[in-house]
Amino acid sequence: MTTPIVEMRGIQKYFGAVHALRNVNFTLMPGEILGLVGDNSAGKSTLMKVMTGAYQRDGGDVFVDGGLTHFKSPQESRDFGIEMIYQDFALCGNLDIGQNIFLGRWPKKMGIFIDRERMYREANDVLKRLKVDVNSVFQKVESLSGGRQQSVAIARAISFNPRVVIFDEPTANLSVMATERLLETMAELKKQNVAQVIISHRLTDIFAVGDRVMVLKRGENVGDRYIKHTTEKDVLELIVSGKPETALTADEARARAA
Ligand SMILES: Nc1ncnc2c1ncn2[C@@H]1O[C@H](COP(=O)(O)OP(=O)(O)O)[C@@H](O)[C@H]1O
Ligand SMILES: [Mg+2]
Questions:
Q1: pLDDT digit string, tens, across residues 186-233
Q2: Domain assignment present for 137
Q3: Does the pLDDT of residue 247 top 60, yes or no?
Q4: Do 152 and 199 fall into the same domain?
Q5: What band does 255 get if pLDDT is binned at 50, 70 and 90?
């Protein structure tokens, strides 16, 4: 029996008077690709930020590898192998690709000098691991297209050797080609047994790469389906008029996966 890599039970989150997450359940299995969908303000980003420790929950439990956790910051969840890629990528445009991938932890020589050779070699390695083709790791990030910038943000995340990667609306501003590349990258990461969450309005993308899809509506679970057992039409129906239900428990998820 497999333990979920992340499980959240009964998550509550308030922003002042706004009840953003109402008793939300969430399960992610190792190597699984989960689509997280729902209308604007459904609580998708908030749920993922609760998972990484970027936001503190007001109720409920977060388990990683079956153990209860209380991440105080994304830095703490990173140490557990959880990486979130934000919509705006959070890169430094005036620095080059290699510098961005290792931002805040440039490799050092003799404790003081930046080991440029190692930094660019490792940057190349991680881009290769992703099968991402950038012309040169010395290019400034601001000179890259949106899709390439995203590749750099992903490469940075991958360089931490994560076990879980969360993509928050990654294809919203991407060209068709760049979207294809992203989906290939996700498939590649899946082969390496990295669990992934993709938040997207584009059900086609989720149905192309996903194993399962979870639907939130106004901060509540309204559906959790295996891709092979559902259709885009049914998921759309849940997004628009789904009734709150309890998501799969870990046992149910396992039973269905069997
Ligand atoms: N930092 C914040 N401060 C105040 N309200 C927030 C904050 N983040 C999210 N919210 C509110 O929580 C609700 C869910 O937002 P969000 O998780 O961003 O939705 P989604 O990602 O599904 O579009 C919305 O009503 C939003 O306005
Ligand atoms: Mg969002």
A1: 998 999 999 999 999 999 999 999 999 999 999 999 999 999 999 999
A2: yes
A3: no
A4: no
A5: low
Per-residue pLDDT for 250 more than 80? Answer: no
183 within a domain of the structure (yes/no): no
Domain assignment of residue 2, given as a range: 1-81+164-170+194-258
Q: Which pLDDT score is estimated for 57?
A: 97
Q: Which ligand is nearest to the CA of 46?
A: 1
Pairing of strands 212-217, 220-226: antiparallel
Query: Do 152 and 112 have their domain in common?
Result: yes
User: Taking a C-beta distance cutoff of 8 angstroms, is the pair 155, 96 a contact?
Assistant: no
CB 223 within 8 A of CB 197: no
Name the token pair of 152: 């750099």
Query: How confident is the model at residue 253, as a pLDDT?
Result: 55
Residue that has been written with the tokens 């498939």 in this structure: 187
Domain membership flag for residue 55 = yes
Closest ligand, as measured to the CA of 39: 1
Ligand 1 atom showing the smallest separation from residue 199 Cα: 21
Place of tokens 């870990």: 250
Mean pLDDT of 157-175: 89
Cα–Cα distance between 32 and 35 in angstroms, integer? Answer: 10
Q: Answer yes or no: is the C-beta of 87 below 6 A from any ligand 1 atom.
A: no
> Is 49 close to ligand 1, i.e. is its CB under 6 Å away?
no
Residue 209: which of 21, 2, 30, 32 has the closest Cα?
A: 32
